[in-house]
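Bumping my old thread because nobody answered last time. Still need a sequence for this structure:
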């Protein structure tokens, strides 16, 4: 019997959404026993928590909220909110490699779901990474725009590695209806909660 679609209803009287551009080498949490940079170095808003993770060595959009139901809706893979990344890889992808990303790639934890994958020109509005990428002189680099609907550990990096395109840089620019648009590394702003994500009865 097919299960009904999951519906979440906001339980917080004043739900908030924070859109944050996480810099490279910042942990996606508020504390760290090893003294590494965390969300608390950038965000002073109280009682908000990250809805999902972004790796220490990845950059870009992180959504924080004070509402547990909304946090679950954003983070839980069952809701299949698409996540879009700009991915700089080492090498030039063949059409066959792109087809593999679009059909699904076999990883050590099973096949990935089909992704949207396209070669793009180097994004003009992307900030320089600090520290800069280490390029290999004789190997070109290519930018991809990749959209997935899963949330496995380090999934995008593993997907590009599986087709022999090591990931040099990974920037998340969109989660569901929320976009990074205009935020510089370390900046955050209040986001809207679209009507369709406010939950159902």
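Sorry it took so long. Here it is:
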């Amino acid at each position: 019997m097919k299960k009904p679609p999951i519906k979440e209803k906001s339980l917080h009287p004043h739900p908030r959404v924070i859109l944050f551009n996480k810099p490279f080498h910042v942990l996606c949490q508020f504390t760290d026993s090893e003294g590494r940079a965390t969300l608390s170095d950038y965000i002073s808003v109280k009682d908000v928590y990250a809805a999902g993770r972004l790796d220490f060595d990845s950059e870009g959009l992180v959504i924080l909220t004070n509402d547990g139901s909304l946090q679950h809706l954003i983070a839980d893979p069952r809701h299949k909110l698409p996540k879009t990344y700009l991915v700089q890889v080492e090498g030039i992808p063949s059409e066959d490699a792109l087809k593999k990303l679009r059909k699904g790639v076999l990883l050590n934890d099973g096949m990935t779901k089909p992704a949207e994958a396209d070669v793009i020109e180097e994004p003009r509005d992307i900030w320089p990474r600090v520290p800069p990428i280490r390029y290999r002189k004789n190997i070109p680099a290519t930018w991809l725009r990749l959209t997935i609907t899963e949330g496995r550990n380090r999934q995008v990096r593993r997907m590009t590695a599986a087709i022999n395109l090591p990931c040099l840089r990974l920037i998340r620019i969109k989660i569901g209806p929320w976009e990074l648009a205009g935020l510089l590394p370390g900046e955050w702003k209040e986001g809207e909660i679209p009507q369709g994500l406010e939950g159902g009865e």
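The chain has a mean pLDDT of 89. Let me know if any region looks off to you.
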